[in-house]
Amino acid sequence: xxLTKGMDGLKQKINQHLxxxxxxxxxxxxxxxxxxxxxxxxxxxxxxxxxSFDPEKATPKRGNEPDGFSYGYEIVPKLNIKxxxxxxxxxxxxxxxxxxxxxxxxxxxxxxxxxxxxSIISYPLGDCNVYLVDAxxxxxxxxxxxxxxxxxxxxxEKPYFHYLTMEDERSLLLTELMSIMDSNIRNYVSGYEDLxxxxxxxxxxxxxxxxxxxxxxxxxxxxxxxxxxxxxxxxSDNARKAGxxxxxxxxxxxxxxxxxxxxxxxxxxLRNLLxxxxxxxxxxxxxxxxxxxxxxxxxxxxxxxxxxxVETQKPPISVMTFREVIxxxxxxxxxxxxxxxxxxxxxxxxxxxQNAVKPKEVDVCFKGTSPHIFIGGKTGSGKSILLHxxxxxxxxxxxxxxxxxxxxxxKGGVSFVPYKHLPHVVAxxxxxxxxxxxxxxxxxSEEHNRRLSLFKREGAPSLDAYNEAQQQKGKKPLPFLFGIxxxxxxxxxxxxxxxxxxxxxxxxxxxLSRATGIFLALCTQQAPxxxxxxxxxxxxxxxxxxxxxxxxIGNTAASRLRGIGRALININPTGEExxxxxxxxxxxxxxxxxxxxxxxxxxxxxxxxxGKDPLDHLIFDDNDRGARLPSWIxxxxxxxxxxxxPFIYVGIPGFFRKEHVKFLLHRDSQSNVVxxxxxxxxxxxxxxxxxxxxxxxxxxxxxxxxxxDMQKMTTPTYNxxxxxxxxxxxxxxxxxxxxxxxxxxxxxxxxxxxxxxKSVYEPEVLYAILDIKPDNNFTTSNSSGFSFDEISEKxxxxxxxELIEDGPDLGIHVLVYGYNYPNIESVLNTFNNSLLxxxxxxxxxxxxxxxxxxxxxxxxxxxxxxxxxxxxxxxDMGLRYKDENDCGDPFIIYDSLGDRRFSGTPWEKLFxxxxxxxx
Length: 919
Hints:
Elements: H1 2-42, H2 44-47, E1 69-76, E2 86-92, E3 99-103, H3 109-121, E4 128-134, E5 161-164, H4 167-189, H5 195-201, E6 209-215, H6 217-220, H7 224-234, H8 238-241, E7 244-250, H9 266-276, E8 278-279, E9 291-294, H10 300-312, H11 323-332, E10 346-353, E11 359-365, E12 373-376, H12 383-397, E13 403-409, E14 425-430, H13 434-458, H14 463-472, E15 480-486, H15 497-512, E16 518-524, E17 538-542, H16 546-553, E18 566-570, E19 581-585, H17 593-608, E20 618-621, E21 628-629, E22 647-653, E23 661-664, E24 673-676, H18 680-697, E25 704-709, E26 730-734, H19 738-754, E27 765-770, H20 796-806, E28 812-818, H21 821-828, E29 841-844, H22 851-854, E30 868-872, E31 889-893, E32 896-897, H23 906-913
Parallel strand pairs: 3-7, 3-8, 4-5, 4-6, 6-7, 12-16, 12-17, 13-14, 13-15, 14-20, 15-16, 21-32, 24-28, 24-29, 25-26, 25-27, 27-28
Antiparallel strand pairs: 1-2, 1-9, 10-11, 10-19, 17-18, 18-19, 22-23, 22-31, 29-30, 30-31
Helix pairs in contact: 4-7, 7-9, 11-17, 12-17, 13-15, 18-23, 19-20
């Protein structure tokens, strides 16, 4: 009886104990339930069954990164009255592991492929990079073809997943991982436990994780040194801290010693790696009476769903901005007061964020590192936004009297157009013409030499020293000059005189101008080899391909950048990768914010100067260029403040000058004009521009203009200048009347020769021959069928020769146009005494080997676009000649009306009949 009572008591105590244990477990589980549900809902890719993964509903969120990957579940049976099972997820906490090793053929082998899939789908696209390494090109990872790219494919749309099968790629990965680890620890992990901790606090500047999956490690990396590199990677837990998570499989057969093997040392290296790794084994049960279920290897259908997830997802954009800081500065309306306190020989600019709260500055330093800048990056990488940061933050920090910009956009885009009204911008070109960029280099070279002379006179070694001396004397200081040429590789599109001079001037400025406060920032998508990088101290690159990265910053790390606006800066002379500094370019809205910033800065500046801008600004915009006819064309005084000489204006300069391009037809030998080029419409329009001004300028004296159009009737531009017929003093004829017109003009010459003293009072005459060529009209003998009167029994070429040689002294000038240089040369070089040197004004248009008319040794095409030209004239008329190698001034021929007073006049007819385009 007592035994029965004792047994009943023991049974009761056991039941009480089990009940207590069950209740304790339920309480414990309930405390985890909320967190588990959160994992399941917010990180489905990490915690839910792969077979239930739905790519349409999976939306990983930044800030919900998983702590581990699910690989199955534990069944906790019959813990509640409903007689239902509770499934507790089995999570592999990779965040705490140096590396993970899985044995080939073990029950855990499926986890390897499954974990790779989970790493792809557990993060917002772009927040992690996944490397799938397999020496077998047809291995399991090949199921993901279509979403992975080659390791160096920085230009791919989604370059986040890589399948590495080739030996060179697998070796390159080891080098890249070491670089990533070094960069992340130095730039981000410092001050944090690991990269995960950094990302949790700095989600707006998220740094991507890197997952590496190596299938059968000895086959992928059979060399001892390669495995030792992996060991070095995880040593001291550095890889994990840097956000690099290594998973690999191994075969126990590869641990056996084989002294005869070519890779005899590999087993030892592998054992060393395994000793530092976590080898997956069956987990301990949380509840002894439960059961474990591990997840089988994902099916092909699951892999396809993962592919669909990648194909439909878009990378999140990290928006880091100085918007509030800028607005606060501009709202005060008192910029540059007090002035920014900079150290001597330093000129810092803010370009973005070093981390989520710390701005990144670029110091244009006069001492030590060269102050000049390279900026590169592929299309869409954020290069233009980086330039906006540089310009706007510079303008907010320094007044126009201290810092001035010269901006050139060689792609002719609109990136710089908002700066037309920025007070700091002295000159701006949104033109693809190489001449603008070239003239900036020439201007900087001249300014450097001018400043050196001033410094020498003052005994000052640098701009800072010179400005201090000037301020003590109450004089204005000199500003820092910063030239920014975007897509500068356009300077080297053709190997000609421009590219040679550009290369020479860039080297000269890079080498000499730091002390004079003149700096260059050269920006590009594809850096040409013409620029010596050793003379550039500040090298910045956004994402680009490995070759361009090497050219720009001296190493390939920029090809591994991920995300819009991610950039590297390297100020080491050799460009070693360990000196790279990564940062995030601050976002600026180009459409709304940028114009508003510029307008407000201009308003503040004008308020400081009583509504007047004391600086002279030169703006050239291809998007709204319009070589408009100025209102003072044809007036006796021409431009206000200029001399009353009868200049003829032909267009606006194609370089940084405000003065329009002009020349003088004066009464002196050689004052004639020759035009060469395939651009017929521009040649005729130019002839009309000259003719109309010629008549207006000499109207009182009764000026006469004769135009003979020698073009064939089938030529599209034939007789287009006939629209000028009827103008008093202008005679327009065609080839059929050539003999008559030439003879008439030659007879005027003969009469003036008979009485040269009276010719001073005779009216000016201009004779234009269009489309001159070596046909029957121009022969050395009178075999053309022409009959001449007794006064002038001469051939056409003889008469033309006399007009060119003797006419200018007597007030008669000749203009000839040839479609190409051979046509001109064949006619004007008929005699031993060439007539070309007698043509004082030489104009080259697009095509037709026109360079030879400028300087007879010139090469290449001087003009690239319709409606443009290069003019060579005497030095006293030229705008910028410095030495005998200068081949003229580029200009844009007037192509539109700039004043209503020209409406309904022959000017309007001229521009309508001969627009700025090929006809």
